[in-house]
Amino acid sequence: MALLVDKHRPRSLDQLTYHKDLSERLRSLAQSGDFPHLLVYGPSGAGKKTRIVATLKELYGPGVEKIKIDSRVFQTTSNRKLEFNIVASVYHLEITPSDVGIYDRVVVQDLLKEVAQTQQVDQSAKQRFKVVVINEADHLTRDAQAALRRTMEKYSPNLRLILLANSTANIIAPIRSRTLLVRVAAPTELEICEVLAKSGKKEGFLAARELEKRIAKESGRNLRRALLMYEAVHAQNEKVSDDTPIPPPDWEALIGVVAQEIMAEHSPARILQVRAKLYDLLTHCIPPTTILKTLTFKLIPLIDDALKADVIKWAAFYEHRIRMGTKVIFHLEAFVAKFMRILEEYLMGMDF
Amino acid sequence: MAGFFDIKARKEAAAANGGSTKTAPTKDTNRLQPWVEKYRPKSLSDVTAQDHTITVLQRTLQSSNLPHMLFYGPPGTGKTSTVLALAKELYGPELMKSRVLELNASDERGISIVREKVKDFARMQLSNPSPGYRDLYPCPPYKIIILDEADSMTQDAQSALRRTMETYSKITRFCLICNYVTRIIDPLASRCSKFRFKSLDQGNAKKRVEEIAQKEGVRLEEGAADTLIRCSEGDLRKAITFLQSAARLVGAVSVQKDEDAMEVDEDDKEGNVVTVKSIEGIAGVIPQDTIDKLVNAMQPRSKGLVYEAVAKVVTDMVADGWSATQVVTQLFQSILYNESIPDIQKNKITLVFSEVDKRLVDGSDEHLTILDLALRISNILAGA
Ligand SMILES: Nc1ncnc2c1ncn2[C@@H]1O[C@H](COP(=O)(O)OP(=O)(O)OP(=O)(O)O)[C@@H](O)[C@H]1O
Ligand SMILES: [Mg+2]
């Protein structure tokens, strides 16, 4: 059974319900024949991928929807074999180079040249060029990005790139210079409600406007998340109404518990207990940044206004450390300790 | 991979696409290229705004004795274009292939590989041009090796290059190209004549953009050209891409899929004007009132209110997908030019910006980083 997220995914530009002007812009680019390289960025769950798939359809017609997954083996200079999955139609392919970590350069380099050097064989193809969609482009190593530069220029008659990223900060300037930047904003809460209502109608769910509104708010304008929550609520309840509770995901509930524990007691023993839970979250593959951010935003409403800016300051500080360091747990724990200390000092100060 | 390179599968898909009876769009491929490639300078004199470099190069062209060269400068200022144009003027279209070797960051450039490639290339016999051809192009008796994007070569590979350069110095000239000259090791840089490519200045870049707009039949609103230049920060490639995209946006309705129709339509595109606003939209410039909202939220008031207000604006900006670097740039401008903020506070604020910039480059979470930035500035404004 397909999830709602996939089942009702719009397939063409006209079916996209929000950011109509952006859809028009993409359409006019797709129809012009001199389509530039794109760097599509925006928060996750904003619908970047859906929009791009729809754009590809505008470029090539329904043929792009016939996709296959192929596995390829690449060899690094040190003769290491890398297995790599490629999603491809005859007109385009889609890759996630961050799958191979620091070896992404080899893949990007070899694959793109290969694509660029083979002509579009389908004589009736609408475009002379083929498109390569690169997922998680902001995770590409600098080397891999450098390898794209001249390729993007030299092979532009045969090849266009569409880079997908959450942010442009990690994309090197020469790549930003070679692409047209396309920002995809997250849908507003209202727009999310519309999508939920539409999906619900197709599924025969009973409308519950207030519930949908709450979900939209809870989702933090993340449409994917909202749809998953919506589906979960309906799966877990025989009948939903405007005040059916929305169950948070397990990991989020656990972080909520951690926040309560931190507030309740500030001691080394407590840090130890918390650490076990943090480890638990990490082993379940919850990204450390998500843990730190969620924890921070769960703590903020529980503390005095005077402390909020300071807590954010240290959250940002340790999040940076997480990026730069190698031992994630150190920095998560350090944040917890720092938080306890700030709170303790503040409370002591109040006593006198 | 099979599917992608497999002819049969491709035919099937073509069939799935049904009704498209059009033949392959082969004829005028030039028009279907992105404008940055279409308007890449064809000769040295086409290169805009790098007068000093071009004059020197043209002089060497006459003497036909080229030094090793190092081109450096920010993206989209004409480095690659210049070296390609130079090579073309030296050897002409026929000899280009056999006399010029281009290696860039997309090629394997380990130590041994560069050495091998250079060796093989240098050893190839020099083909002799006919006297008639020689009248048109100087064809000096050496080959050119272009190492584009040289700043992505490892230090070791660069060191190894020194020897290679010397070994073949009689029959080859090297041209290294990079964005950051500091990433080229000294012994290598000192063997080259250096040419700095400047960020394009307003006047020249504007002229080029207007020229292209005219050739493409795109009309620019008053001030649109200036906006293009301002938003692209001296990067002509960016300016041209913005222009193309803006032109497509306003011309959206009249563009037809049919090739022949497109030719007609090129003439009557005249009606549509590229506006300042559309360019700013494409360039990802944050509307001033969004920035103002943030600045307002940061104004001193009771602590709780500040947090609530700032957090709300920042959360919305993040969800709207504004890139953090863009937020930082525009917020910085907005604060720097705000007369009502005392200098001493500005100094403190600058320190915060410095730290935030570094964090963003390191890949820190944008939401936390921007929230932290805004709260800290607010704190400073409150006199902390
Ligand atoms: N000085 C210039 N005169 C005319 N056109 C230019 C100039 N600089 C850049 N352009 C335009 O920008 C495009 C890119 O220029 P080019 O490839 O030479 O940049 P680059 O300096 O090599 O950049 P990078 O550092 O990113 O490789 C060209 O195709 C051309 O359209
Ligand atoms: Mg270049």
From TrEMBL, chain A:
Q: Which GO terms describe its cellular component?
A: Ctf18 RFC-like complex; DNA replication factor C complex; Elg1 RFC-like complex; Rad17 RFC-like complex
What is the annotated localization of this protein? Nucleus
**Which keywords does this chain's UniProt record carry?**
DNA replication, Nucleus
Keyword DNA repair assigned to the entry: answer is: no
Q: What are the AAA+ ATPase domain coordinates in residue numbering?
A: 34-185
Family assignment from sequence similarity: Belongs to the activator 1 small subunits family.
Name of protein: Replication factor C subunit 5
UniProtKB/TrEMBL annotation, chain B:
Write down any Gene Ontology CC term.
DNA replication factor C complex
Q: Which residues form the AAA+ ATPase domain?
A: 65-201
Q: Where, subcellularly, is it found? A: Nucleus
Report the Pfam families cross-referenced here: AAA, RCF1-5-like_lid, Rep_fac_C
On whether Nucleus is a keyword of this UniProt record, the answer is: yes
| UniProt keyword annotations, A-Z | ATP-binding, DNA replication, Hydrolase, Nucleotide-binding, Nucleus
- Family membership: Belongs to the activator 1 small subunits family.
Its recorded name reads: Replication factor C subunit 2
Q: Which organism is it from?
A: Venustampulla echinocandica
